[in-house]
Amino acid sequence: MQVLSGARAGERWVVRVRQPDGSASDVVGWVVGLDDDAVTLEGLLDPASPATPADSWHVPLRDVVVARRAPAARGGPDPGRTPAAAVDRLGVEAWAVDLDPLGDWFLRAGGGFTGRANSCLAVGDPGMPVDEAAAAVEAYAAEHGIAPLAQVVTGSDEDAALRTLGWAETYVATDVLVTRLADLLGEVPPDPRVVVDEELTAGWRATFDEYRPHDADPALVTRLLDGRRPRAFARVEVDGRVVAVARGHLADGWLGVAAVWTRPEHRRQGLGTAVVLALAGWAARRGARWSYLQVETANDVAHAAYERLGFVRHHRYHYLAPPSA
């Protein structure tokens, strides 16, 4: 087993395997089993059927020519080259209750719980003059009983066009941070303290409610959290109590990370980092290559923590409200 010495379950390895005709070929996968006789690796999982790997290999160690640890996720182009509008659209399905298109824009309503779920994502062409689109945003908000808001990329054409109509900035500005999953995961092994579920559990939900106290309809918040797949919920338990959480969502090869929180008495133990990395590993097994998350611009502590993990600022967005609001 010397060629695979140090290999641990959950790590991604490249294994060169000797074939019956004397040739050799490489298999790349995540280690799911290893003993003195053989190694078992699995390839990418299908997001639509997460328990089923596309490929699986059971390789006798006597047939292994050479092996090396591979990056924990597949590489990819610099995420900074992805347009801001495209990154913001990734989050549309990640955090939404009711969702309706308006050309390239998206009208969103979620009972008033969070700005993202209760605003129009105004990026791209709404398919009509901006003044008509703005009126449609206000009408949609009135129909759903929420305040009219538009989420715009700071400094974008949409930002300028709505400001010309008298819309003004409200709420705090938010920075969108990005990184490659391979860079985020590095060579850090999976943390055994973290459990990643693909179903929303009562313990995770109760901890989220402590993190984000609210008076919203509980069923509506459940729809928001549990809504659009593929998504996952990372948690750490201590003595049967959930003490750290994070939520992840996959879209077009990107992992969106949200709701990262650790109970105050359990901070400075690396649990916040652990749940983020666990979601990154979950996403990598499903073919994702990049990650994004959103942080209030003024939250220096969170910015510093994510920068240590390798996240960099991609762009900034804010919300605009009409003069009638």
Q: Considering the protein shown, what is the CATH homologous superfamily of the largest domain? A: Gcn5-related N-acetyltransferase (GNAT)
CATH class of the largest domain, please? Alpha Beta
What's the average pLDDT? 93
Give the neighbour order of strands across the main sheet: 8-9-10-11-18-12-17-16-15-14-13
CATH architecture heading of the largest domain: 3-Layer(aba) Sandwich
Task: Kindly state the percentage of residues in helix.
Answer: 10-25%
Tally of individual helices: 8
The helix/strand series, from N terminus to C terminus, equals: EEEEEEEHEEEHEHEHEHHEEEHEHE
Relative strand content: 35-45%
| CATH topology assignment of the largest domain | Aminopeptidase
Shape: elongated
Low-confidence stretches: none
- End-to-end separation in angstroms reads 68 Å
Q: Characterize the biggest β-sheet.
A: 11 strands, mixed
Q: Pairing-aware structural class of the strands and helices?
A: alpha+beta
Q: What count of structural domains?
A: 3
Over all CA atoms, what is the radius of gyration?
22 Å
Total strand count, please?
A: 18
Domain N-acetyltransferase: 192-325
Protein name: N-acetyltransferase domain-containing protein
